[in-house]
């Protein structure tokens, strides 16, 4: 039976074990639920029943109290992204029908164009009165979480009680977490990873939830030790950033047992586990939740894992299943045009509960009653899935469709390259030319780099970057996704053209 967040909270009402940790402060679960009830009463006094409110804040205790308060009062929390401001942030507030917005003092100027009341988070008037929880079902809306917006304006994803509570209960059970554990949450709580792979996991397990205001690579290990964290969640590049911190002989001397997330760099998963003495589990998923699966011990290098029943790789034009990938002796994909397709949940919506206020985007996502991820992939003969990029990243080079992810995986094999982003720039005649932006840990010689790329047996000549640009850092969203449209907008500025040896 699918639980609700309200039920999970009420189950902790008498629990005296540690429930929330922030900096040098501690709350038991019983105290946490009491604080949620006080915030629920405040929301009920300020909003109409079922009304929406925005929250623009870092991972502070009030975020947890207000989310729990919304669950108890029947209101909807809209997580707002502090990397957006002005008209963009006002658009997000209006789209999600917020009646008012709470914000930390430092973020109040970002909301100058909002058309609803904006209140300092510190102005909340709390009373210690008893609250009768509003009855909730797993289908009831609890939170609106915006997508990263890497390919346009962010969309507000409907996150129901069940969509938040179910992953928490599943992961807590899968990993055997209990009140003896502490869940470390440093990913931003306005995003789904922190809520569904962090906060709700701690809630379901009865574990302590240790909040970090904002992620810090240098602060990660000290926090793990300070809070006694045994579990942490991530999305994107945080593992890479932590690995760039200076190594110490005692790095593995810490309580961390398990790290769970998605979109981690393949080379970093084992390296992180070995250095910090923990197990890293990387899965495939998105804010929408339409498709989720992950790696296991049998998964070959580079693969995302085996698809679950009802998930397939379909040709974007015909809608038919793509044939298995074929490789040469060097691992080069020989039939990309036929094997690469879109990951689709053919069985329906999965955990996708729709977009708020955007029926056109929702209909596009659910074409033919199936959930379309917008992600490109291919399957090997054993059914293992490999990521090939986004549909929007699909390059058309000399009449051939190319995914960007396989090229990026090859480029980061170079010992001096820490990160690579591959994207298209217009070909003067027709289609695209391949361009790569590199973040390097050491200087790269263009001629040597060209020889290296040409030696990668799994790259065809058409996949070799026509232009290469070295930059200090890749532009990213607050959840560490690369903004390739920003890179493409710069064109070929500051780029060099590799001179590949004749093959």
Automatic annotation (TrEMBL):
Q: Name one GO molecular function term.
A: long-chain fatty acid transmembrane transporter activity
Q: Could you tell me which PROSITE patterns the record lists for this protein?
A: AMP_BINDING
GO CC, sorted alphabetically, is: plasma membrane
GO process terms (BP): long-chain fatty acid import into cell
The residue ranges of the AMP-dependent synthetase/ligase domain are 20-356
Q: InterPro entries, alphabetically? A: AMP-bd_C, AMP-bd_C_sf, AMP-binding_CS, AMP-dep_synth/lig_dom, ANL_N_sf
Domain AMP-binding enzyme C-terminal as annotated: residue spans:
407-481
Q: What keywords sit in the KW lines?
A: ATP-binding, Ligase, Nucleotide-binding
Task: Check the record and name the Pfam families matching this protein.
Answer: AMP-binding, AMP-binding_C
Q: Which family would the database say this protein is a member of? A: Belongs to the ATP-dependent AMP-binding enzyme family.
**Protein name, as recorded:** Acyl-CoA synthetase
- What organism does this protein naturally occur in? Amycolatopsis regifaucium
User: According to the entry, what is the taxonomic lineage of the organism?
Assistant: Bacteria, Bacillati, Actinomycetota, Actinomycetes, Pseudonocardiales
